[in-house]
Every structure is written in C-alpha cells, then in structure tokens.
Specification:
Elements: E1 2-8, H1 13-22, E2 29-35, E3 42-46, E4 49-53, E5 56-65, H2 70-81, E6 90-95
Antiparallel strand pairs: 1-5, 1-6, 2-5, 3-4
Helix pairs in contact: 1-2
Length: 112
C-alpha cells in the first residue's frame, strides 16, 4: 500500500475528487494548509503598500491505495490539478506498512 499526498490549489479540489473517484479511490482526507515553494510566496498591494504573503493557501489531499492503483492516482491528480501556472502543487508517495479499520478490525488493503 502507498499513501499519496497532493498539495493543490483550493479551487481544483472538486476536479481532483471527481478524478480520483473515476480511478477507484473510495475515500480521502482533505486538509486546508498554507505554505510556499520556490516562488517564496507572492507580492500583494493593500491600501497602497506592497507586502509579501509568505504562506499561500493550499489544500492537501491524502489517499491510501493499493500499489496497483498508485500510477492511476498520480496521473488523475496531475491531470485534474494542472493549470500550467506556478503553484500547481506537488505529489508525494510514501509506503504504508499497515492499515487497520477500527470498527471491524480489518487489516491491510481490506481496511482501505
């Protein structure tokens, strides 16, 4: 099993959710986050004064899937989240050693 984490633009969340549903993802965790990448934030003007917004609002989507679904999940997120502009986000993949469904006691891929 693998955990796929994607940091995306907030307005792309619905498209990513729909794309993941189409490739067989049955559940996900979504968190509102803030951060910055290579650009270091963005410059804005408020009442005539320029300032830098260091942390840009993003959404983190986390899904745990069987190894066989990882490539499809990555491609779905990449296609749905892409705008072609700076700040489209990142996708990270990590191994998952174990999963347990608390209600039933199921383990491994059955728990996902």
């Amino acid at each position: 099993m693998k955990k796929v984490e994607a940091i995306i633009k907030p307005f792309k969340l619905d498209e990513v959710k729909d794309a993941l549903g189409e490739v067989g993802v049955k559940g996900m965790t979504v968190t509102e986050v803030k951060g910055f990448g290579r650009t270091g934030g963005k410059r804005e003007v408020y009442r005539g004064s320029a300032y830098v917004v260091d942390f840009v609002p993003k959404v983190k989507v986390e899904v745990v899937v069987a190894d066989s679904l990882v490539v499809g999940v990555i491609e779905a997120i990449e296609k749905a989240a892409k705008t072609g502009r700076i700040g489209d986000g990142k996708i990270f993949v990590s191994p998952i050693e174990e999963a347990v469904r608390i209600r039933t006691g199921e383990r491994g891929e059955e728990a996902v």
